[in-house]
Amino acid sequence: MKAALAEAGFVRWPGVLDAEACDDLRALFDSHANDRPGVRIDPADCATLAAYRAVAPTLRALLGPRARPVRALLFEKRDGINWALGWHQDRTIEVVERVDVPDYGPWTVKQGRIHVAPPIGLLAAMLTVRLHLDPVPCDNAPLLVAPGSHRLGLVAENAIDAVVARCGTATCLAEAGQAWIYATPILHASARSTSGGRRRVLQFDVAACDLPGGLRWAADARERALEGRPASA
Fold it and tell me: What is the mean pLDDT of the chain?
């Protein structure tokens, strides 16, 4: 699996989520109103899910024992909420608060959560996971990736089409309960669903390192809050 990730930049997780893990995901989607393309959630909540516990051993084997979710989003496509996403790289991470550090920027706030663009080296050390609650055949907006594009660094916007043409396109089909793991910087896209059904995906970024200069992953926010509590709390 490590070799496939290094070469192509994406791989299907060899397992399948069990009923408990799928029920966990279903409850997570039901608890978040979804009237937009993606809903950002606390990555610490992601780490408590049975679905995450299922894939965690694989992620620790790939990144090391400190691997944990550091950013998480719920994506749903269905009637009334159906959208396409053009070719792009994920270039930001979510942090607890703004701390100005060389080579980190620009800064953005997305759904009230603080994001910053880090150096490409950090993104290249991360993985992204997509857990599928619904079947994703060709007509239900599967993820498209450009194999090998994760090894090209930050790709300029005006060069993306040429890079995709050179790398080619792979289609990440999935059954309910399956998952894909890919290198965070890989170029990817998805079309509108034409199936008429639902397509629910929990996507989360995984890292095993700390951030420099006082920056802290959003996943560390709860730990930060606990530091200010009395010892008896």
Answer: 93
